[in-house]
């Protein structure tokens, strides 16, 4: 699977979800899901919501870097919390930000966090 479109469709089919069901879980439109899967949009602003709705690693979904499924660990004082299917876990990328706090931010603030992270990851990948 070389593209976001292929990985998104694969994960959606693996979870036996329609585009409409995935859209509802990820809080995006069905049209957005269709656009991603048909390569009309390449970098979804809502990658974390899509990954969460599919129980997959957002970095795998975005660029194919394994693993597809990883463990989520909430900061040590909160313990470990399983999300979704019992065999699937995520590692939450932030040590001092809980998922509930992150997702309570307005979409434009989450977009800013994502854009900053993508910029840093792209700089790292290009050796800057």
Fill in the keyword field for this structure.
globular, single chain, mainly alpha, 7 helices, 128 residues
Radius of gyration: 14 Å
The portion of residues assigned to helices is 40-55%
Low-pLDDT sequence parts:
84-88
The best one-word shape is globular
Query: How many helix segments?
Result: 7
Main beta sheet, described?
Answer: none
Q: Quick check: average pLDDT?
A: 80
Terminal Cα span: 27 Å
Structural class of the secondary elements?
Answer: mainly alpha
Number of strands: 0
Helix-strand topology string: HHHHHHH
Strand percentage, roughly? under 5%
Which SSEs are present, and which pair or pack?
Layout: H1 4-14, H2 19-26, H3 30-37, H4 47-54, H5 58-63, H6 99-103, H7 107-125
Helix pairs in contact: 2-3, 2-4
Description:
By secondary structure, the chain is mainly α. It is 51% helix and 0% strand. It contains 7 helices and no strands. Helix 2 (19-26) crosses helix 4. It is globular, with a radius of gyration of 14 Å. The model is unreliable at 84-88 (pLDDT under 50).
Summary?
The protein has 128 residues and is mainly α.
